[in-house]
Design a protein that fits this description.
The chain is α/β, with parallel strands linked by helices. The chain has six helices and five strands; from the N terminus they run βαβαβαβαβαα. The protein binds 4'-phosphopantetheine.
């Protein structure tokens, strides 16, 4: 059985993430979306909210599981008995960071490989950080996130936190 991990912060999940998740789910028997729960990284959304958003969006796809993880990604992959990590590349600017991360992970555990999927061209400019900025300053982020999670973003940026 081919099982892969698609890890990320998903703060919040975007249409670009969802494109990669759905494409990856067709390539592997099981896809575990790993949501990073890192006390060192300040996120706009709690890990529970980020997991819930992804669960709502993937509820009809049986081979996708959403799981929070903390600590090292390779340890999470081992725990899940997965040997493949999927990451997306939007532009050359992503490459340096992604290459370093993939090589670091291989150095820690040679049994785990990273495969890269190129972002669909129409989503190549989409990022979670852009969504957060737009939401914070009252911009239109509707083209950046799946419509099902608009209420979560509105709630998260309604000025109450
Ligand atoms: O969505 P992001 O923030 O680009 O995802 C980054 C993520 C979660 C894949 C990365 O930060 C990660 O794997 N963190 C876990 C800690 C770890 O394993 N670090 C060593 C690899 S450099």
């Amino acid at each position: 059985m081919k099982k892969a991990i698609y890890p990320g912060s998903f703060d919040p999940v975007t249409v670009g993430h969802m494109d990669l998740i759905m494409r990856s789910a067709k390539m592997f028997d099981e896809l575990v979306v790993g949501v990073l729960d890192n006390y060192r990284k300040q996120c706009a959304f709690s890990v529970e909210e980020r997991v819930e958003m992804l669960e709502v969006l993937t509820k009809d796809v049986p081979n996708i599981k959403i799981k929070a993880f903390s600590g090292l990604l390779v340890d999470f992959a081992k725990q899940e008995d997965a040997h493949i990590i999927v990451r997306g590349l939007r532009a050359i600017t992503d490459f340096e960071y992604e290459l370093q991360m993939a090589q670091t992970n291989r150095q820690i555990d040679g049994g785990i490989d990273t495969v890269f999927l190129t972002a669909s061209a129409e989503y190549s400019y989409v990022s979670s950080s852009a969504v957060r900025e737009l939401a914070l300053f009252g911009g239109d982020y509707s083209g950046f996130v799946p419509c099902e999670i608009m209420p979560y973003i509105k709630k998260g940026f309604d000025g109450s936190r």
